[in-house]
Design goal:
28% helix; 14 strands; 365 residues; globular; alpha/beta; two-stranded antiparallel ribbon; 8-stranded parallel barrel; TIM Barrel; 11 helices
């Protein structure tokens, strides 16, 4: 057994992992069928090819029709979708893997084309001024509809229902996608949440929806099977802008997550250079390791060497790899045998079919 930190086994709050390499959630837009459901033939084979990962986290699966913002992304809110995901988890488990599903609501990063002409939902009526990938190509986002309290409560119920559906589909757990400028992140930020009711105005109120979702999900699944994804220093991407309240808000959220017995906290290092922003945090793992008492997965531009180092230094327990897993289904074996990595073809990241999805070959025994 290699002595690399990445290749050591790990107890993920009761789920035994053979290594600390995580397949990061990545949108691949292959659910191009009327039901927006995954299939054993495509997603099942894709994830099973990568079952050597200590943990697989699926692409984001929308929790309701209101949650969608990209073409051909799978859902987890209908029985047809649950059936499809159950076939996927069987493929992964039969291959010896472990798999969580990422539960997703994009909020304002959407377009009326996905909602029969109605506006996307968001904390406040503020246009992110980005683009949405619609059936007719990229289109500019619009000013969304500020969610009513009733719509917030329904969204909480949607996450609860989807969590139950995930358990029915035999997932090992779920990850709440509260990151990357999507719905929960929009609630957290004072630049995208201008509410003056119970869900805005202070960091505690802006974070309220997230903790209500966790409490609801706990009613239908074990708390130790829930993971959390956060991206504290996201700036200038997905319509998000940091301000003086951003990091204190994430400090509060992550500190409060210690009240729960979660599977893990999945953090992203900055997606862009934020060194010239005085209120940004440039080293996310180092900041939050002392604050969070549970398991930490770190993500964001790591290679094999950097992945081993961040674990050895104690700043994270696991490392999530995104694009390298697109083109290297045997990534763990390549790390173990020091085999060079295959480059990915970005032109096939979001295209239908098997090309660029199932046709990357393994190079290890």
């Amino acid at each position: 057994m290699s002595k690399q930190a990445l290749l050591q086994s790990f107890d993920l709050n009761g789920l035994q992992l053979p290594n600390r390499v995580v397949m990061a959630p990545m949108t691949r837009s292959r659910a191009n069928n009327p039901e927006n459901m995954p299939t054993a033939e495509l997603q099942g084979k894709y994830y099973a090819q990568r079952a050597g990962a200590g943990l697989i986290i699926t692409e984001g699966a929308q929790v309701s029709p209101h949650a969608v913002g990209y073409i051909n992304t799978p859902g987890i809110y209908t029985q047809e979708q649950v059936k499809g995901w159950k076939e996927v988890t069987k493929e992964v488990h039969d291959a010896g893997g472990r798999i969580f599903i990422q539960l997703w609501h994009v909020g304002r990063i959407s377009h009326p084309d996905f909602h029969n002409g109605e506006l996307p939902l968001a904390p406040s009526a503020i246009n992110p001024e980005v683009q949405s990938f619609t059936p007719d190509g990229l289109k500019d986002t619009v000013t969304p509809k500020a969610m009513s309290v009733e719509e917030i409560k329904q969204t909480i119920q949607d996450f609860k229902t989807s969590a139950k559906n995930a358990m029915d589909a035999s997932f090992d757990g779920v990850e709440i996608h509260s990151s990357n400028g999507y719905l929960f992140h929009q609630f957290f930020s004072a630049t995208s949440n201008h509410r003056s009711d119970a869900y805005g105005g202070t960091k505690e109120k802006r974070a309220k929806i997230l903790f209500e979702v966790i409490e609801a999900m706990k009613e239908v699944m074990p708390e130790n099977k829930i993971g959390m994804r956060l991206n504290p220093s996201l700036h200038g991407i997905f319509g998000m802008t940091m301000d003086e309240e951003t990091i204190p808000t994430f400090d509060y959220i992550i500190g409060k997550l210690n009240d729960y017995d979660l599977a893990y906290l999945h953090l992203s290092e900055p997606f862009s250079d934020v060194s010239d922003i005085p209120y940004a945090e440039t080293e996310i793992a180092k900041r939050y390791r002392p604050i969070y008492n549970g398991n930490i997965i770190i993500n964001g531009g790591f290679d094999q060497e950097k992945g081993n180092k961040v674990i050895e230094e104690g700043d994270a327990d696991m490392v999530a790899y995104g694009k390298p897993y697109v083109s290297n289904p045997d990534l763990v074996k390549r790390f173990e045998q020091n085999v060079s990595l295959t480059d990915w073809d970005k032109d096939t990241f979001y295209t239908p079919g098997k090309k660029g999805f199932l046709d990357y070959e393994k190079k290890t025994a």
